[in-house]
Design goal:
Elements: H1 3-10, E1 17-21, H2 25-34, E2 40-45, E3 49-51, H3 56-60, H4 66-69, E4 70-72, H5 73-76, E5 83-87, E6 90-94, E7 99-102, E8 107-109, E9 112-115, E10 119-121, H6 139-163, E11 170-174, H7 178-194, E12 208-212, H8 224-236, E13 239-242, E14 247-251, E15 254-257, E16 260-263, E17 266-269, E18 273-275, H9 278-282, E19 296-297, E20 310-312, E21 317-318, E22 320-321, E23 324-325, H10 330-349, H11 351-356, E24 366-372, E25 375-380, E26 386-389, H12 391-404, H13 408-424, H14 441-445
Parallel strand pairs: 1-2, 1-9, 2-5, 9-20, 11-12, 11-17, 12-13, 19-21
Antiparallel strand pairs: 3-4, 6-7, 7-8, 10-18, 14-15, 15-16, 22-23, 24-25, 25-26
Length: 457
């Protein structure tokens, strides 16, 4: 048995061991901070890659390929000599014995534990809707959405060739937050700009995109002027926005808004999120509390109650600041991860300094959401205060996202892809992989199947 394995199983080791669960924005920020310190770090994730989630929708709508926004975890931390990477799944956490139980059967001992497993989709108790209306959290989600959106156009083209007609191409996005707005705008862009010359029998510009938002406003976290600007820009792109529209059912080929049936050739979900199941595992420890979304309630140092050696970061953490919950987006997640790494470093090296360390405070630099080509909104707080929309906000959005992409190759690849897409109005990754069936298409197509004797294939 190697000395490293012996130390992990017995706890006999010269340095403190930190286990980070989750290699998202928070987990990687913590790993990079701890990589410079005299501790041993284990970074554990179910996948072997980190995904830049803010650009997932561009993979879903064929602007970028998955490799443009994903980077192997090992290559990101390769220069951290104190860091090992384990690809596995956590099944349990024993906070008394300080052990993490993973799927392979191994129990990993820790001195400090960072939980940063993010969030997943919430269908508000209607899990059966997931198969009909996929959400967008992973690369797999993005490729499935891409398959469905592109397949709708292909099936319409085929049916037009066979019968002379096809059902209306109406795409329904449930949820008017940043993800919903970005998906809707991107679908409109590819239909109106990028595919108009690629089909011979259908007019892709006739495709309709509908956002159904349950609250009175889209982009509810943004200032009112940016909410109104977003709606104007969406309408200019041909996207219809319906607010205060409560979806009561989702079925193949349609959704129900109250008693109203809304036909949909492709339904996408962007309406809600919930914390990852890891929060429930931690909540088995007496005193640990969860909020209604399953987030772990933590103190001002990011610790759950009575667990000073455990830190919860990112979407999984419920952090209160100035009477409000810190939002579950990339910017605070990175700050939380960095803070947890710095605090662990002080706890290990100098307990007196750790006692004097200031509580975590989220430094809000602003928010931005892209709507389509040359269309975006941005709430800027730092380095200056301003509410921006349109082309300027879109250019700022592109610059910020290229800057924060992990790895030089990713930045270069994304810049090249955007130049090709936005200047030449072409995108090069419109690949349909997997099943060639679309939920509800046959039902939608029934009224439109009028035989024409002169149609030949």
């Amino acid at each position: 048995m190697s000395s490293a394995i012996q130390q992990r199983l017995t706890g006999e080791r010269p340095r403190a061991r930190v286990i980070i669960i989750g290699a998202g924005f928070a987990g990687l920020s913590a790993a990079q901070r701890l990589g410079k310190l005299a501790v041993d770090v284990t970074l554990l994730d179910r996948k072997n890659h980190h995904t830049f989630q803010p650009l997932l929708y561009q993979v879903a709508l064929a602007v970028l390929s998955p490799g443009d926004i994903a980077q192997p975890i090992r290559s990101i931390v390769r220069n951290n000599s104190n860091t090992e990477v384990v690809m596995d799944e956590v099944l349990g956490i024993d906070t008394v014995k300080r052990r993490v139980h993973i799927k392979s059967g191994v129990e990993m001992i820790y001195d400090y534990l960072i939980l940063a497993t993010g969030s997943t989709h919430s269908y508000f108790g209607k899990s059966e809707w997931a198969a009909i209306a996929p959400g967008l959290k992973t690369v797999e989600d993005a490729t499935e959405i891409r398959r469905r959106v592109l397949l709708a156009f292909e099936l319409a083209e085929r049916q037009m060739l066979e019968t002379g007609s096809h059902p209306p191409l109406q795409f329904v996005v449930i949820g008017g937050g940043p993800t919903g707005v970005e998906l809707a705008g991107a679908i409109s862009d590819i239909a109106r700009l990028y595919m108009t010359r690629d089909f011979r029998h259908i007019d892709t510009k006739t495709a309709k995109v509908l956002i159904l938002e349950g609250s009175p406003h889209v982009l509810a976290a943004y200032p009112p002027d940016l909410q109104k600007s977003a709606v104007r820009q969406l309408n200019k792109l041909g996207v219809t926005v319906r607010t205060s529209a409560h979806v009561t059912d989702v079925q193949p080929g349609y959704v129900m808004v109250g008693d109203e049936r809304v036909d949909s050739c492709c339904t996408l979900w962007a309406a809600g999120v919930q914390a990852s199941p890891l929060g429930k595992l931690l909540a088995q420890t007496p005193g640990v509390e969860l909020d209604k979304r399953g987030c772990v309630i933590v103190n001002q140092y990011l610790n759950p109650k009575n667990l000073p050696e455990v830190f919860v970061c990112g979407d999984l953490a419920h952090v209160e600041q100035d009477g409000k919950q810190v939002p579950g987006v990339a910017q605070p997640a990175m700050q939380m991860g960095d803070y947890a790494g710095r605090r662990i470093g002080l706890l290990v090296a100098d307990s007196d300094k750790a006692a004097r360390m200031k509580p975590f405070r989220y430094f809000d630099k602003g928010d931005m959401a892209t709507i389509g080509r040359k269309a975006a909104v941005a709430r800027v707080v730092w380095p200056f205060k301003a509410n921006l929309s349109g082309f300027i906000a879109w250019m700022m959005w592109m610059f910020v996202h290229i800057y924060f992409l992990v790895g030089f190759r990713n930045r270069l690849s994304v810049f090249r892809s955007w130049a090709f897409t936005y200047i030449q109005l072409q995108d090069g990754v419109r690949l349909i992989v997997g099943s060639q069936t679309l939920p509800g298409w046959d039902e939608l197509a029934q009224p439109a199947t009028t035989t024409q004797n002169d149609v030949q294939i």
